[in-house]
Structures are given as C-alpha cells and as structure tokens.
Amino acid sequence: MRYPAFLPLSVLILIVFISPAIGWRPWPHNKTEAYDSIYGGSKKYEGSSEFVHLRYHMGPVLTANITVHTIWYGTWQRNQKKIIREFINSISAVDSKHPSVSGWWKTVQLYTDQTGANISRTLRLGAEKNDRFYSHGKKLTRLSIQSVIKSAVTARTKPLPINPQSGLYLLLTSDDVYVQDFCGQVCGFHYFTFPSIVGYTLPYAWVGNSAKQCPGVCAYPFAVPDYIPGLKPLKSPNGDVGIDGMVSVIGHEIAELASNPLVNAWYAGQDPSFPVEIADLCEGIYGTGGGGSYTGQLFNGEDGATFNMNGIRRRFLVQWLWNHVVNYCSGPNALDQ
Fold first, then answer.
1. Structure pTM?
2. For 275-302, how does the pLDDT look when each residue is reduced to its tens digit (9 = 90+)?
3. Which residues have a Cβ under 8 Å from the Cβ of 87 and sit 6 or more positions away?
4. Residue 159 domain-assigned?
5. Is residue 2 part of a domain?
6. Fewest Cβ atoms nearer than 10 Å: which of 16, 46, 207, 245?
7. In which region does residue 58 sit, left (phi positive, over 0), alpha (psi from -120 to 50) or beta (all else)?
8. Which residue segment(s) compose the domain that 279 sits in?
C-alpha cells in the first residue's frame, strides 16, 4: 500500500532550515552523459535495518507471465494514458538505456514461491476498459471499487478477460474522482476482489490522480505540501505532475501485487490485515543515500526534469524496492552497481 510521503512539520522545518546538505531538494553536482547526477549525503545500505524481518508466508506469487488489465475510470487525456502505458510496457523492455525500469523490476524477480520459482520477468499490457461516464459515480469506497471491476469483467461489450492466475486489474481514477481514504491515508492500494461482489478472486490495485486534490501529498517531489514554505518542487520528467506522481505509485502497487497478490506471501509484520510489503519498506527512497527527508541521488535531464530510470522512450521517477537477499532497498540507479 502506498502511503502519503511527508514528515511532521517540526521535523520538516528542522531539515529545511538547519540541514540543507541532506534536505528535501537535491542539488546538481557533475554531468553524467547527457544529464546531471544529483548528489547529497550518501550511504550504501538505504533503508537497511536489523529490525526489518520480511518473511515468506507460503502464499502464491505471480510466477507466470503477468498481464495488466487497466480500467480508466473517469476523464483521461490521450497523452496521460500514453505515459502510464509506456511505464508498464517498460517493465519487460530489453533494450532500454541504463538505469532502466526493467532493471528496477529485477528486484521483484528475486522473490519466489514455495517451489523456488521466481516472479516472472514478463509483464505486459492486456485488454483495457474505459469507464468515461463514471458508472459508479465520482465518489468511490473500497467496496465500490470492486463493483467497478465487476462492471468491467461482466460488461456486455468487450468485457475484460477473467484471469485469476496471472492477471492484475489496475483501476486508475481521474483527478475529479474522490476515493475513500485518498490523500489523507493512502495514494493507492492493492487487494483482491471478493467472490461475493465480483464473482471471482482477482488481484487488483487502485491508484488515483492527485493533481487537483493533493499533489503535494501523492505527487511529491513534483509538488510540495502547502505547509512547507520555501520548498520548490522538482520538475516532472513527462510534464504532468499528477501522472508522473501516479507512475511511482503504480510501480509500488504492481510490485506488491506480484510478490503478495493474496496478502499471504511476502510481507513483514504479524498482521496480514496491515502488511508491510516490499515497496512500503522503501517509501520515499529513489536513489543512493535516500531515506528520511532525502529522496536520494537522482538525475537531471537537459530540460531540468528529475528522474531516476529510463523507459522505452520516456524517463520516470520510481521509488526503490526492498531486496530481501541483501536486506536493504535497491534500485537500478544505485551508485554501487
């Protein structure tokens, strides 16, 4: 589950005004090929802790080739869809420039099921469904989200295929849709559908476009909260703050769906109702040295946009994931790789 990334005001004031060397805003250092590498205080073991006990609870992970079925709920611009589609397609791309989205997915592939089979390296886009007329209104609860999915898989025309074994159902809501707990508690979440509502048990995730409701919460660092004076947002790599913010949340949820689709596989903690999963452990870490208030060492493009990995043609900023082999957060743009 992706939570809003912010710190208490007193801590933020202390960081911004007393410790600029490890502040929220990284700074340019020296050029690496066509872009600048942004440096700050560095440590190798991002997020590492002897207190983190991520365990396997014997449930399934997605070892077969994964198909993502997207439900576009509400009003979406064509370019917004293109950005998100390219990110998802980049997960299995083989010729993207390093550091790449496919390199980021290699951390997910480290996770196995009880037979020792790894999560699939192949993830592709499947059939999509447009719900442009807000079939369940502009205010959704967690349960009504499942009703939206039911409508998509039981539609009279072009229903989404039902694939409980290797299908992921990704519900994306436009910036004018209000979802229960959005902004205040979560920026996205994943679970599985109830047969009593949908008729099947299907792993799904929801992510909302926060552009109009809470960009400073769910699209950070491309927007900053109003209560932090003087902090400038970073320039988003694809020119759309809400969508570029969504990309990292989508990555967060897809990684956790692959490694914990039925909430009984890989997670830390004793309560499966509130699992701490492989992306939760690295919330807010995007590069070497990341942690606390600092995103980590990132790249600046020639246009001034900030990113940490390359897709097929575009660039993205995506949070790192927990690597259970080395017991710390890792990503393709780590300086020690």
1. 0.87
2. 999 999 999 999 999 987 689 999 999 9
3. 101, 247, 250, 251, 311, 314, 316, 318
4. yes
5. no
6. 16
7. left
8. 9-330
